[in-house]
């Protein structure tokens, strides 16, 4: 297994050497530099899994290192460490993509745990990126790369779910591959020859979402010049992913629950129940 490579950035010699010692003792490959400028140079020359940077430095500060790292190498995790912690700088760092914001003096065990978790997230991101690429090139197969425990558990769960005809709740942070997992389940299911459709439920108002999901009848509202099938109907026989379903208005969730339970829907402005198989 490849040893994780960590970049330590701090203009204070003692702080930098202490952190380097802690990380090397854990078995990581460590490169340490004394300025943000040198950090950016190292990032261009080598591939890193994690950056630990001090915040206050001359010329190029830690916030700039964070911003440049996440814009150029978005999968690289960054932990900001500072002896001048403020709520404003913490919020700014997290908004710019920092994995964590740590105040000095820090607890050594806390650093060890944070680094371990950040590297686990980095590893999972790399595996998901590769998996996403392979899904597009190997339709109908199970191109699951990676040997981490979480990936193996995910693979097993997908294989168990795919042959069934049950509804599935997929949980995970933004960018962790929820839609990718949904596509894999669809591709390995008996519904693979039918359509896979996805909709972000948080991107629409209640009226628009209702129209997108259920469709409408002619003259259901001003401008409805013809019949429109909604996504639930268009996905007939296949699979639909309702992304960010927690952002859906409660009244819409009730309507959707009825469709799931009874396998029937009524278009906006309609009275006829239409059977759906999704």
Q: Could you name the CATH homologous superfamily of the domain at 5-106? A: Response regulator
**Poorly predicted tracts of residues:** none
Q: So, CATH architecture of the domain at 5-106?
A: 3-Layer(aba) Sandwich
Shape: elongated
Structural class: alpha/beta
Q: Measured on Cα atoms, how large is the radius of gyration?
A: 24 Å
Q: Looking at CATH, which topology of the domain at 5-106 would you report?
A: Rossmann fold
Oligomerization:
single chain
Reported for the largest beta sheet, the result is: 5 strands, parallel
Q: Strand order across the biggest sheet?
A: 2-1-3-4-5
Kindly report the average pLDDT value. Answer: 85
Strand composition percent: 15-25%
How many separate helices? 10
Number of beta-strand segments? 11
Give the fraction of residues assigned to helices. 40-55%
Order of helices and strands: EHEHEHEHEHHHEHEEHEHEE
Terminal-residue CA separation: 42 Å
CATH hierarchy class name of the domain at 5-106: Alpha Beta
């Amino acid at each position: 297994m490849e040893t994780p490579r960590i970049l330590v950035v701090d203009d204070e010699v003692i702080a930098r050497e202490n952190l380097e010692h802690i990380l090397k003792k854990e078995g990581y490959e460590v490169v340490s530099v004394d300025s943000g400028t040198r950090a950016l140079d190292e990032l261009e020359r080598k591939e890193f899994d994690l950056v630990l940077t001090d915040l206050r430095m001359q010329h190029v500060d830690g916030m700039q290192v964070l911003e440049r790292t996440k814009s150029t190498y978005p999968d690289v995790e960054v932990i900001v460490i500072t002896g001048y912690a403020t709520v404003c700088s913490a919020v700014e760092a997290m908004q710019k993509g920092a994995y964590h914001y740590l105040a000095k003096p820090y607890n050594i065990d806390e650093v060890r745990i944070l680094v371990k978790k950040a590297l686990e997230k980095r590893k999972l991101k790399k595996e998901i990126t590769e998996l996403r690429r392979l899904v597009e090139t190997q339709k109908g197969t199970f191109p699951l790369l990676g040997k981490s425990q979480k990936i193996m558990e995910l693979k097993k769960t997908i294989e168990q779910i795919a042959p069934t005809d049950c509804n599935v709740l997929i949980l995970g942070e933004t960018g962790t591959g929820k839609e990718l997992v949904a596509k894999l389940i669809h591709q390995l299911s008996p519904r693979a020859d039918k359509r896979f459709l996805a909709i972000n439920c948080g991107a629409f108002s209640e009226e628009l979402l209702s129209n997108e999901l259920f469709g409408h009848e002619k003259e259901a509202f001003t401008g409805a010049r013809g019949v429109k099938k909604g996504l639930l109907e268009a996905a007939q026989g296949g699979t639909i992913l309702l992304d960010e379903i927690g952002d859906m208005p409660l009244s819409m969730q009730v309507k959707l629950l009825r469709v799931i339970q009874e396998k029937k829907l009524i278009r906006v402005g309609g009275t006829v129940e239409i059977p759906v198989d999704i």
